[in-house]
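note to self: dont lose this again. the chain is below, predicted strucutre after it. 206 aa total, dont forget to put it in the shared folder this time
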Amino acid sequence: MISSIAGEIIAVADQRVHLRQGSLVCEVLTPACDGQRLAASVGQIACFHTLLYLEGAGQGTSYFPRLIGFASPEERDFFELFTTVKGIGYRKALRAIQLPVASIARAIADKDTDLLVSLPEIGKRTAETIVAQLHGKVDRFVEIKPEERGAASGRGIAHVAAAALVQLGETRLRAAQLIDRALAGDPTIDTAERLIEAVYRLQEVR
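---
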């Protein structure tokens, strides 16, 4: 079992990271939410907490080893839990996790199927199944590190801001992504109004 791997990131594309360890280059699959961060880390040393699984091909006549990498053991644990849901395999889960694990865990804890449906690969029935199977099991993943949310640790601020952004034309997924970026950039935000202002500043920078 390979539980972690470290090396120099030499390329990032299509949720695949090429990691150099001496003369060896390993391919690591990563969740969709990590793509932008990893693309900005090419040339740097990174450590991934990993899962190794065998992917079948040719109607099960051949199997290929695949290594999946996560930024923390907690994210790896969430992924393992997420893939226990009927109909969610490793590849589907990697594409679906376009938001930070804590945001998806909050949606499950709050039975927010609308946010879950906004994720790639997740339809209404699958979202309902996720909530039915995982509600009550994700509480430890809901807690956000102080540097990620800071003073805005209450769920109400993010929910109010997200609802306002959706009314202004953003999708649920895009609103959640913008809110997470704004809170990561300014952990002192303590009102929905300030959070929305921070979101618009981010968009102006882009």
